[in-house]
Amino acid sequence: MEKDISYEEFEEFIERYFLQSVKEMKDYNDEQNDVESVDQYKSTIDEGMMGNVSQIIDGIDDGKIQKIIG
């Protein structure tokens, strides 16, 4: 099976998405006059991203998986 995306492309996507989320969270925090540390940003966004990934995986049609595994 040929890869549609490489691991490096996946890493780059995750990094771009994460940094975009940091920007959005910072903008929101600025409006609320909140200040958070790098660790707080990482923890909060990581938790949200992992939840999103789980929902995406749960939503994958079983037929698509069955087609690959036979």
The major beta sheet can be summarized as:
none
Helical coverage, percent range? over 70%
Q: In terms of per-residue confidence, which ranges show pLDDT below 50 for 5 or more consecutive residues?
A: none
* N-to-C order of helices and strands: HHH
Judged by helices, strands and strand pairing, the structural class is mainly alpha
- Tell me the number of helical segments per DSSP (H or I, 4 or more residues long): 3
Report the end-to-end length measured between terminal Cα atoms: 13 Å
What is the number of beta strands?
A: 0
The residue-averaged pLDDT reads 93
What is the overall silhouette? elongated
Strand percentage lies at: under 5%
Radius of gyration of CA atoms, rounded to a whole number = 16 Å
